[in-house]
Amino acid sequence: YDAGAYCPYGLIVPIVAGTTLPGPYHVPNYHCEFTAVFTNKTPVSPYRGAGRPHGVFVMERLLDRAADGLEIDRAEIRRRNLIQPDEFPYDVGLIYQDNAPVQYDSGDYPRCLARAAEMIGYADWRAQQEAYRTAGRYLGLGVACYVEGTGIGPYEGCRVTVEPSGQVFAATGVGTQGQGHMTAFAQIVADHLGVTPRDVTVRTGDTAAFGWGTGTFASRAAVVAGTAASMAAAAVREKTRIVAATLLEARPDEIELADGKVFVRGVPSRALPLGEVAAAANPLRFAMPREWEGPGLEATRFFAPPRGTFSNGVHACIVEIDPETGMLSLHRYVIVHDCGRVLNPLIVEGQIHGGVAQGLGGAFWEKVVYDAQGQPLTTTFMDYLLPTAADLPSFEVGHEETPTPLNPLGVKGAGEAGVIPVGAAIAQAVEDALRPFRVHITEMPLSPSRVWELVAGTRRSA
């Protein structure tokens, strides 16, 4: 592991790579060692995926080698070795980055593989490929499976407050860089309080609003902070029922919240706006009932998960290679993803699309090159290649939902899943396309020039 000139984030990247490598498979014998060194290069710090693509690349390439050596179909060798749904929780026997055991909590790995194969048209692929080769075109298909450790601790918290105006405020310590936290947290809180997400204002990463938190990393915000928001909103809902029961002369268990109102079940005419209940919860005269446990409709809750929860999925793609130039064209890209309960499908798909695009850059275009003295050679975008929208196909996404038992929402993280298996899937597809040239891919990232060199090398040795 080349840490570069400094080590700003410890050994997280190689640790995550080593603990991700076994993937969704039965691996009864596994031993991993890594050597970390300092060099006079750019420092390395976690980046979306943070070691997971490296571990998945190694395992998936090993499975491809085993499939070829045993003359087994590449998808079939994966299917035979997948952990089955009735084996969860599954103890991998390793220690994760949070110092907790790597224990897969839930999933249906065979179902994800079968769905990805169906979506990409795997059963008919060989006939299609042969037709392309007859026409002088070199197309290949790749498929890669993965798991993603998400939702690690130590904790996150959230405070939820209902104002006399009826507006709801939620504050949490996690930071936001565009993941859609405001929308997702507002949805969670709104569901508990019977309001719309537009009625909920969310503040993140502001110590003036909420002073406790660990941060946004490791695909954890929806899992840890989202659960804290749910717990706080549920506590506010129960307090609302207690206060409203006094006002509406009913029992707390008869009180319902919906459409911004608080009412007696079965008697919608006996109702109050949520804001009026919030105002009544802060009495200016008379004695406060002991069961209110303080003024206002407000609660703070913290969630500390016992360990991380594991998302999983399968990517499949079809690529075309021009052996004369080494250029790659992406024809199709399919993703089947399981992050437990999906809170907001649009946000999850956006995370997946962005991750796949980023992963494709790292698989085929982007590479920082140094000379023998450690001086960077790729210092402009003329040298450091980036994929554009014109290089990418429309992504096809299939959601599977296997809720986790480790939090009450049943959610798993989704922020990094899109990038994780891309390098492995692309490597397999390129190798499949260039099978007539006996090219073997053992590295990432590739590039047009590198693919051309590999083809030229096999031609010289033929």
Automatic annotation (TrEMBL):
Keywords: Molybdenum. Signal peptide: none annotated. Residues 116-393 form the Aldehyde oxidase/xanthine dehydrogenase second molybdopterin binding domain. Residues 2-82 form the Aldehyde oxidase/xanthine dehydrogenase first molybdopterin binding domain. GO terms for molecular function: iron ion binding; oxidoreductase activity. InterPro entries: Ald_Oxase/xanthine_DH-like, AldOxase/xan_DH_MoCoBD1, AldOxase/xan_DH_MoCoBD2, AldOxase/xan_DH_Mopterin-bd_sf. It holds the Pfam family MoCoBD_1. It comes from the Bacteria. Transmembrane segments: none annotated. PANTHER family: ALDEHYDE OXIDASE 1-RELATED, XANTHINE DEHYDROGENASE. This is Xanthine dehydrogenase family protein molybdopterin-binding subunit. It comes from Candidatus Segetimicrobium genomatis. The lineage of its organism: Bacteria, Bacillati, Candidatus Sysuimicrobiota, Candidatus Sysuimicrobiia, Candidatus Sysuimicrobiales.
